[in-house]
């Protein structure tokens, strides 16, 4: 496990509230102190201000999908401070409800265990494992139906076109360079 640059305290609890677009509306003092940003720099900013490029995009797609569906989300996230020092958090993200409506999100961060971090590292590393070698079969099965039909029909049309241009006049006894006219059975 790579050592984080910022070692959080077991007793630390970081609270961040955002609106429905992930714009920060509230931060507690513990978070302000650790993040390196001033409160003014944080309020009104997107929470991606703490985003670390190590994190795969799918983790946040999962987070957004879950909380937009009105459900809580928990995950181990690597974030960074204003000076780009990295730290891991166990983030528990919950929708904030008012009169039965989701009006924003609350994120509670705590220090994760070493085991949680190494499991998260494994998961993120696995997800970026090299793709299997290119396979025509897989490529074809991923195409949509219209493209599949085009790929299957176009060579047949090409063959019919070539036959109609060169082979049919020949079979009908037409001279090279003329084409056979089906309508009046002549070569022109
Ligand atoms: C409540 C809440 C908490 C979030 N927590 C984090 C977080 O701790 N770290 C992070 O990088 N993104 C977090 N995000 C996701 C960011 O909004 C953003 O989608 C992510 O950083 C990816 O940045 P990008 O959309 O600019 O690529 C959170 C979003 C919400 C709604």
TrEMBL record:
Q: Is Secreted there in the keyword field?
A: no
| One Pfam family in the UniProt entry | PAS_9
Q: Which PROSITE patterns match?
A: PAS (PS50112)
Which Gene3D superfamilies does the entry link to? Answer: PAS domain (3.30.450.20)
Q: Which UniProt keywords apply?
A: Receptor
SMART domains recorded: PAS (SM00091)
List all membrane-crossing ranges.
none
NCBIfam families registered for this protein in UniProt: sensory_box (TIGR00229)
Name the record gives this protein: Aerotaxis receptor
Task: Give the encoding gene's name.
Answer: aer_2
């Amino acid at each position: 496990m790579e050592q984080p640059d910022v070692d959080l305290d077991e007793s630390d609890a970081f609270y961040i509230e955002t609106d429905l677009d992930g714009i920060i509306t509230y931060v507690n003092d513990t978070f302000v102190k650790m993040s390196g940003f001033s409160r003014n720099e944080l309020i009104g900013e997107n929470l991606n201000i703490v985003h670390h490029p190590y994190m795969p995009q799918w983790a946040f797609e999962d987070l957004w999908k879950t909380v937009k569906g009105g459900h809580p989300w928990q995950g181990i996230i690597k974030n960074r401070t204003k000076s780009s020092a990295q730290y891991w958090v166990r983030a528990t993200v919950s929708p904030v409800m008012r009169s039965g409506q989701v009006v924003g999100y609350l994120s509670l961060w705590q220090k994760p265990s070493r085991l949680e971090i190494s499991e998260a590292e494994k998961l993120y590393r696995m997800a970026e494992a090299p793709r299997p070698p290119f396979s025509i079969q897989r490529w074809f099965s991923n195409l949509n139906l219209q493209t599949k039909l085009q790929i299957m029909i176009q060579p047949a049309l090409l063959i019919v076109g070539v036959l109609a241009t060169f082979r049919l006049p020949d079979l009908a006894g037409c001279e090279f360079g003329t084409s056979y006219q089906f309508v009046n059975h002549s070569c022109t």
